[in-house]
Specification:
Helix content: 40-55%
Oligomer: single chain
Order of helices and strands: EHEEEEEHHHHEEE
Length: 179
C-alpha cells in the first residue's frame, strides 16, 4: 500500500511561514540540548504516524483521504489571507481545529482510550463462562471457523489458550482462584 510514509503533525506548508532566509527553521533538540536549523520537511513528522495496519502493511488512508485535503484547504486559505487579505474563517478554523488532534500526544490518548474500551468489552464478554461460550458459539456460527479453548492450571493461576482453526489466537491468564 503505497503513499507517503512521513506524516507531519504540524503541516510542512505551515512551518514554511516561519523559516529564515535560508528556508530553514530554528529547532531546539531536547535530547542534545542545542539549537539547529532544519528543513520543514523533517520537522514535526513521524514515519507512519497516521497509518492503519491492514494485512500486515501500513495503509496511509487517513493521511491521504482526511488530513491532506484539510492541509490543502488550510494552505489555500492562509495563502489567500497573506496575499489578498481574503479571510476564509471556516477553512482556517477547520485547519487550526484539526491541529490539536494531530499531535502524537493526542494519538497516544486515543490509543489508550481504545485499549481501555476494548478491555472493557472483553471483560464484559468473558464475565462468565456461559457468556464467553455464547460468544464463541456465535463466532463459529457467523464465520464457520472452529475455536478450541484449552485450560492449563499452573502456579499463580490458570492459562487459557484459544485456537482458531488450529492457529493460536490469544492467551488469557487468570491469576488467583480459578473458577
Amino acid at each position: 500500500m503505497g503513499g507517503p510514509r512521513k506524516h507531519h503533525y504540524v503541516a510542512a506548508f505551515y512551518q514554511r511561514n516561519f523559516v529564515n532566509e535560508k528556508g530553514l527553521l530554528w529547532v531546539y533538540d531536547r535530547w542534545r540540548q542545542c539549537y539547529t536549523e532544519l528543513n520543514p520537511t523533517s520537522v514535526c513528522a513521524e514515519t507512519d504516524l497516521y497509518s492503519l495496519k491492514r494485512d500486515g502493511a501500513n495503509d496511509p488512508l487517513v493521511e491521504i483521504k482526511v488530513l491532506s485535503p484539510i492541509d490543502e484547504m488550510g494552505a489555500t486559505a492562509i495563502r489567500r489571507l497573506r496575499s489578498e487579505g481574503m479571510v476564509d474563517r471556516a477553512a482556517i478554523a477547520c485547519f487550526v481545529g484539526f491541529q490539536s488532534t494531530r499531535l502524537p500526544s493526542a494519538a497516544k490518548i486515543i490509543r489508550e482510550l481504545h485499549e481501555r474500551a476494548a478491555n472493557a468489552v472483553m471483560q464484559m464478554t468473558a464475565a462468565t463462562e456461559e457468556r464467553m461460550q455464547a460468544t464463541i458459539d456465535n463466532y463459529v456460527r457467523q464465520t464457520g471457523k472452529s475455536i478450541d479453548v484449552s485450560r492449563v492450571a499452573g502456579r499463580g493461576g490458570s492459562r487459557e489458550s484459544a485456537r482458531v482453526d488450529g492457529d493460536e489466537a490469544c492467551v488469557i491468564r487468570k491469576h488467583g482462584r480459578t473458577g
